[in-house]
Amino acid sequence: MTIHVERQDGVATVTLDNPAKHNALDLADARSLTGIWRDLRTDGSVRAAVVTGAGGRAFCTGVDRAAVAQQGAVPQPCAPFAVEDPLLRIGPKSNDLWIPVIAAVEGMACGGAFYLLSEAEFLVATEESTFFDPHTSYGMVSAYEAMGMAQRMPFGEAARMALMGAAERVSGRRAYETGLISELAPAGGALEAALCCARTLASYPPGAVQGTVRAVWAAREAARDHARALATPLIALGNLPPEQQAELFAERRGGGPPRVR
Family, per the entry (predicted)? Predict the structure, then answer.
């Protein structure tokens, strides 16, 4: 098991714990996250949550492509109107969890990590953290990821991050300046800063907090749901075949360092 949950002071800390692979997620991890969020819905002792990555080098780098390949490719529907995405249900809101969730980011957060970040109430990160979306570099459409980030960042920033792919990374400082993250913590301090906020939220009457979470999300759900309805045909029509994606991935792994802005 590479995902751990600790409960203390009314707060559940969900830790992605596979630092050797930058906390990338395999199929079992995806199922585990779904189960964790669903379990928290019925745990009355938990009134807030923090999601973070172990090791300090990465929050999460999305799908572990090597592990998923070994576990067997996810079968895809025979139509461009449906896509089987193994990470589509790893976020708390996708599992109908309405306690506040704070993301604590140290190091890299990219690609599939955005399924988690886009469903947190707010983000705490360090100046050394970096955010990027490598999909286009590998011949893949950034649909769900870009849609989620477009609701957290100014349009131009979200579009640039999605389009520039692996060539460019957004620094923690720039993410703070553009509103993606709400607090810059010192190096190594993102988790404690997030826990401090979560403990405060856990001390409030839970009905009021959860009702407020639901109200904030109601304000954005119409646009979100409309956009996500378009995601599957965009992915099906725009993605290169998996074998060509793998070729691009192998070619670019040895490329030069990305630009950080």
Answer: Belongs to the enoyl-CoA hydratase/isomerase family.
**Domain range for residue 90?**
3-187
Task: Specify the CATH number for the domain of residue 118.
Answer: 3.90.226.10
Tokens linked to 43: 């745990």
Rounded to two decimals, the pTM is 0.86
Domain tally, the chain:
1
User: Is beta strand 58-60 parallel, antiparallel or unpaired with respect to 108-110?
Assistant: parallel
HSE, side-chain direction, 13 A CA sphere, residue 183: 19
Give tens-digit pLDDT for 174-225.
999 999 999 999 999 999 999 999 999 999 999 999 999 999 998 877 676 7
- 209-214, Cβ contacts within 8 angstroms, sequence gap of 24 or more: 209/47, 209/48, 209/99, 209/100, 210/98, 210/99, 210/100, 213/98, 213/99, 213/100, 213/121, 214/98
Question: Which residues share a beta bridge with 63?
Answer: 25
Q: Which helix (H) or strand (E) element contains residue 260?
A: strand 259-260
Give the number of other CB atoms < 10 A from CB of residue 1. Answer: 8
